[in-house]
Design a protein that fits this description.
By secondary structure, the chain is α+β, with helices and mostly antiparallel strands. It contains 3 helices and 4 strands.
């Protein structure tokens, strides 16, 4: 059963609770800056574990001292859903522990 897309209002309300996250086209995105490449790699591994736990995966990019995510739900036609906001909230909850800003 496909996941239902959120209304524009619900997406904006959800993003209001996720500092640094924004809507770009049909995805929610966030780039974190970290104190080192090692810290960025550690956050990337932590995000991968969260994604596997939720069985919901983002586009995830590791830079020298950055980690970037772009999230939407394929089985909702590429729209933003509650699953995306949940993933973003879970990442947000662990990012500071890796030194992310």
């Amino acid at each position: 059963m496909p996941t239902e897309p959120l209304s524009a209002h619900d997406v904006e309300a959800g993003l209001g609770e996720l500092p640094g996250w924004q809507l770009e086209g049909d995805r929610i995105t966030r780039t974190y800056r970290l104190p080192s490449h090692f810290a960025a790699a550690g956050l990337t591994v932590h995000i991968a574990a969260i994604q596997d736990e939720l069985n919901h995966h983002s586009d995830l990019a590791l830079g020298y001292d950055t980690v970037a995510l772009a999230v939407h739900t394929h089985d909702a036609g590429g729209a933003v859903t509650r699953k995306d906001l949940e993933l973003a909230a879970r990442v947000e909850a662990v990012a500071a522990g890796h030194g992310a800003a």
